[in-house]
Design brief:
By secondary structure, this protein is an all-alpha fold. The protein contains two helices and no strands.
């Protein structure tokens, strides 16, 4: 996982340096979307985990 983190950090660094802050944000957002899609593909995440409706008693106070 350290190598994957290193690659992601380098990609964000290159995007920020060569493309500016907008490119940095775009690469970060696409990376997050890719991570979630990968978790779905591996079976580690279910669609209901992200889109769960809270019950009335579940609200933090």
């Amino acid at each position: 996982m350290a190598v994957v983190g290193l690659a992601a950090g380098m990609a964000l660094g290159f995007a920020g340096y060569f493309g500016g802050f907008g490119a940095f944000l775009l690469v970060a957002a696409l990376g997050a979307i890719g991570f979630v899609v990968g978790r779905f593909a591996d079976g580690d995440l279910e669609p209901g985990d992200l889109f769960r409706v809270r019950e009335r008693g579940d609200r933090p106070r």
